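Table 4 source record.
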Amino acid sequence: MIEISQRVQIPDSEIDWQFIRASGAGGQHVNKVASAAQLIFDIRQSSLPEFYQQRLLNKVDHRITAAGKIIIKCQETRSQHDNKARALEQFVELVRSVTVQRKTRIATKPTKASQRRRVESKKQRGEKKALRKKPL
């Protein structure tokens, strides 16, 4: 069982693993060993609570596909075991991130002094550019 929070746990059977050859430099080792780990998790078919599923499906993240699957590829180390552990850490972090409630932004007006400073700096830039013109 993968523990997301005290109340939420995911069975190991819901995560599919694929082990593939890592891309990039590495010489002969890269060409003969499948050390990269790819984690695949189907959000819609999971036992996650509805709250988690909806938040994950609405989240904008390159690791979440339009079909509702989370795909995390890890090829940071030469060890398949280490890559698998790191991919699992990234997965748990991604699922936990949807529980964080963001504060709503309260729009504020700029102060009179900041408006004045902004206009003055624009005037100074305009004067500087005007001096670049060729004389008549």
